[in-house]
Amino acid sequence: MRPLIVVGTGLAGYHLAKEWRKTESSRPLILITQDQGENYSKPMLSTGLSKKKSPEELIMATATEMANSLQAEIITGSSVVQIDAEQQYVVLSEGTKLVYENLVLALGADPMRLALPGTGAADILVVNNLDDYRRFRRIISGKKRIGILGGGLIGCEFANDLCLAGYEVAIYEASAWLLSALLPEQAGRCLEEQFKRNAINVHCAAPVQSVEKKADYYQIGLDSTLNDDPHEVDVVVGATGLRPRISLANAAGLTVDRGIVVDQQLRTSNPAIYAVGDCAQVASWGVLPFVMPLMQQVKVLSRTLLGESQSVIYPDMPIVVKTSLCPLVIVPPATFNAAITWSVVQDDQGLLGTGIDEQCCLQAFVLAGSRATDTVYKSRLLRQMRLPYSLLPSVQ
Q1: CA 257 to CA 251: how far, in whole Å?
Q2: What mean pLDDT do residues 332-336 have?
Q3: 390 vs 28: which has the higher pLDDT
Q4: Strand-by-strand arrangement of the 362-368 sheet
Q5: Which of 165-179, 207-221, 254-268, 331-345 has the lowest mean pLDDT?
Q6: Is the CATH code 3.50.50.60 the one for domain 4-108+244-305?
C-alpha cells in the first residue's frame, strides 16, 4: 500500500495528519521536514517574549512523540528536491526516492527580504520558524533598541511583544499607515497612536533606503526629505511579508500563481497532489496566510483524501491581531480583492470600521480598543454580514 506523503510539519502539515488519522488508521503516513519536526504553534512566536516563554517552552511535542501519536514516519533534516508527478514519487535531498499514493504540499511561505544596500543589510533578522526564533532570542539578549522593517501583521505583533518585554522599538513602514493591507486609514492611525503612547516609535510613509553596520549599532537610512535624524538601533528585524513557496510545485509542472493553485477540494492541477496552508492559492480567495482559513482547509482536505466530496467554503473568519496595546479584530471581505468602501466611527468605546460593497451590504469590519474585546458586539456584527447596511442599526 503506497503512503500518503505530507511535505512540511508546520501548523498545516501536522493538523492535516492529525485530522486524517482520526479516521484512517492503517494507511502508511510519511511526513518530511527540513527542520527537527517539533510541534509548536507558530503564532506564539510573536508573544513569547512578553509571556516569558523560552523557545523550548513553545514546543508541544518532539518529532519522535509526533511520530508515535500519528503512527507515522517523520523524516527530519531533509527536503524534497524533485517531484515526479507522472510516476508518483519524490526525491529527497540525500537522494532517497519515495513513492506515494497522494502527496500533500504543506510548504508554507518564506519571508520577503528587501533588496537594500548597506553593510548591515545581510544582518537583518527574519523570524519564520522556531530555529529563526531561537537565533532571534540569542541575538537580542542584552540589546535594547530594535528596529522593525514593516508595519504589517508580523511587524506590529513583534513590536507589541518587544515593547511589553522592555525593549525600545521603532517601526518603519513604507505605506501611509500600519496594517494598510487590512485596515482603513483611521483604524491604522488608531493603532499607531496607541503604539506611540507606549513609546513605540512609528515611522509611516518611510521606506527604508539602507542599513549600515557601525561599530556597535546599525543605522537605518531613510529618504533625507522625510527625516534627517539618525535612526540607530542594536538589532534590525525584517517583517515585510511572506511569499508562498511555489518553486518545487512549479518545477513539477503544477499550476502556480502567487501560490500553488488548487481547487475547492485543495487539489492541484495534478489529481494526486494537493496543497494546503500558506502555500495554497484556493479558488477566488487567493492566498490567506491566517490560522482560521488553514483549519478550514485541513478539515476539507482530510475528508477529500478519504474519498469524500467536500469543498472549502470559508465562514466569516475574524483575525485577532496580537497587539494588546491596541486590541484589534478584523473580519476581511470573503472574496479576494473585493471592492468595498470603509466607514469608521471612533468614540470612547474604541473604533468600529464597516466595509460596504457596491450593493450596500456589510462585507467586512474592524474593531479596535474595548470594542475588540466585546465578544457579544463582535458576534452581533458577524450575524449581520452580507445584510444591507441600512438594516443594521446596531453597527453604529
Answers
A1: 13
A2: 73
A3: 28
A4: 319-321, 328-331, 362-368, 350-356, 341-347
A5: 331-345
A6: yes
